[in-house]
Design a protein that fits this description.
The protein is an alpha+beta fold and 224 residues long. It contains four helices and eleven strands, in the order ββαααβββαββββββ. The strands form two sheets. Strands 1, 2, 3, 5, 8 and 9 form a six-stranded mixed beta sheet that branches. A five-stranded mixed beta sheet has the order 4-11-10-6-7.
């Protein structure tokens, strides 16, 4: 049974695929470039770097550029996760409450992996999102990149499984799906985004994630 890496509420967990469909689902969602970009950034960070930085502002800012910040955490979900972030004013925040990324192993097809990602997301039927204490669950939206895309894996990547698989560095084909929120319009100052992702399926973990934000205006450098 091959392992499949699952990113649940922005973190990685090892799951085993028990069955995969043979045909591409007919009701796949439109291709979403934000999902692709989120996964390409996330996968490019070596495990050792993510572990060393933990949930610090340095981890939150790693690899970020442009007008959209792609949020993630390194926690396992065994306990509540809190990440600290300092973000430039005017940025949109792309928050994945739950997302699955799937890449074909030998003998598998992309349509099979599209179906596995979909079934994983389907399992999470309890999702809530608050911003500064207010319920904003209406921002949660299911998004997918069911058309294949390429992603670079470093040598120390999230698909490495000690004792089972050693996935070498390289460029690989993927598909992905998840439940996301695109948050806009937060003013300079301190903000809190909190979400819960849970399921009645005991084979999947539940997640309780908090982001503490400092949104700041850019300034000139003042050497110490």
């Amino acid at each position: 049974m091959r392992p499949v890496k699952v990113v649940v509420a922005l973190t990685t967990a090892l799951m085993a695929a028990t069955a995969l469909a043979d045909e591409l689902p007919t009701n796949t969602l439109p291709a979403d470039p934000l999902v692709r970009q989120w996964w390409q950034r996330f996968l490019a960070i070596p495990n050792s770097v993510a572990t060393d930085l933990g949930e610090t502002p340095e981890a939150c800012g790693l690899g970020q550029f442009g007008n959209t910040w792609f949020l993630s955490v390194t926690g396992t979900g065994e306990e509540p996760i809190t990440r600290e972030c300092t973000i430039p004013q005017g940025r949109k925040l792309f928050v994945p409450l739950i997302t699955f990324g799937c890449t074909p192993f030998p003998g598998e097809t992309l349509p099979q992996n599209v179906q596995f990602c979909r079934e994983g997301v389907d399992a999470y039927d309890k999702l809530t999102l608050t911003i500064d204490g207010k319920n904003r669950s209406e921002l949660i939206e299911r998004r997918a990149q069911s058309r294949s895309f390429s992603a670079w894996f470093p040598e120390d990547n999230i698909f490495d499984t000690p004792g089972q698989f050693d996935v070498p560095a390289g460029v690989y084909v993927m598909v992905a799906e998840g439940q996301f929120a695109l948050v806009e319009g937060l003013r300079a100052g301190e903000h809190v985004i909190h979400f819960l992702a849970s399921t009645t399926d005991a084979s999947f973990p539940a997640y309780d994630v908090t982001f503490n934000f400092r949104i700041v205006a850019a300034t000139s450098i003042t050497p110490r």
